[in-house]
Amino acid sequence: MLSRFLQEAAVRCPFATALTFEGRSYTYGELDGAANAVAHRLVQHGLGPGRRAAVVMMNRPEWVIATQAVLRTGAAVVTPLGSGTLPELRHALDLAEPDHILAETRTAEVLSTYPTGAELTCVDADRPAGWESWQSVFASTAREPVATVVPEDSEAVLLLSSGTTGLPKVVRHSHRSLSTIVSTWIRDADLRTADRVQFFFPASTIFGMSTILAVFAQCATLSFFRRFGLESMLEDVQRSRITIGMAAAPVAVAMANHPGLEDYDLSSLRYLVWGATPISKDVAQEVTRRTGVRWLHVYGITEAGQVAANPVDEPERWRLDSPGRIAHGLDIRFVAADGKELPPGEPGELHLRSGQTMLGYLPPEADSGVFEGDGWLRTGDIGFLDEDGWLHLVDRAKELIKVSGFSVSPVEIEKTLFSHPDVDDCGVYPVDDPVAGQRPAAAVVPRPGADLDPAELIEWTRTRMSSYKRLAKVSFVAEIPRTPSGKVLRRKIPEVVARAVTR
Known about the structure:
The chain is of the alpha/beta class and about 500 residues long. Strands 7-6-5-3-4-8-9-19 form an 8-stranded mixed beta sheet, sandwiched between helices. A 5-stranded mixed beta sheet has the order 12-13-14-15-16. Helix 5 (about 105-110) links the parallel strand 5 (about 100-105) and strand 6. Helix 7 (about 175-190) crosses helix 8 (about 205-215). About 50% of the residues are buried.
């Protein structure tokens, strides 16, 4: 069971630091005891095998304690994003139908008008009406173990998909599939007991859940943040001697543009992980040039966890143009639109088969067309393997822009725009065209103080790509809509552009 990672660590290294958060440290013994105390209370409230509990919080130690407690009861834990709005949370909870909801004050207030028959628990003292406060329970370190045994293939964790092209789906993982993902991540990251891992992405994602469990499995230390802040991130690396850091395109761009980046001692970092978003080679190289820190390029999906990674033990072979080689234990194939399997080197939709694969989606009808015969999962990502076995990703199948019969990758255009020195962030999306059907357009966040012109950026891309990839227009915006993990929400870009134009 997934609860074993923390429980076994509490036996092996009870006084070792498991987690730091906002100036406070928590040992493995303290976290384990608190999880047991909450699990006892949940059992008293009827939670157990076959049931579900939603943990709706931002990153904080109570999120870890709550998810561990739910798993110990034998129930499945549902992890909506703690930063979600009421419509977003309602969508997730309506699909998952939890029997219990554990929230912090902010999310409890957001959910105060949500109609539900679930038990309502707030981890803080200042709870809204109708919510019971368990602040004292979460602060307890009662050590009596709780470990309800359930089958390894039973439902364990329900995560939200990225929702980049439509409403998010609930992704159901078993104890077995997520345990396999954790083992893969430990191997691909070469995670060690001495490591201090910094994490500020949402814990409620597959990346967050697998990283936290991997840290526990190795008795390492997690430096946990409520959210990303560049200064606090850099200061923490220097002060805490962080050995493994995390990033995505917006984080890397912020680092590359920081005028005082060289003032920080980042020498403790073994590497920075680049995942969730396509890598921008120029940005990555600029950070490395200024700091000496290398990037470990990886690729994963909510439905199956870690899929590929650069060889962590061979840094001289790390590449920025590929997320690496396929993870151990995964079978893959690339399939054309007509269903035919493609030979090496030809781009097609990536299908995979492994013990890491999800149980399925909620709603159940979303499984249609996702699973093929013999256990193959369609990822929706377009890519190919080169002659040396390195994975190359082209784009999401559903996000390709069709221009006069040609498939245009928004990611390719975004990489080109990121290479412009005055572009801070960008997102490419389709617009209707009476002749071509669709054309790519771009929303761009200029670097502060830059004197940019839309025509300049259109010309920048025109001279670097085929003519059919030429941008129809460029709009300047204050922010690119992204998922908490950093992926561009293309379906929301037109709204952002429209608001920017009307200001």
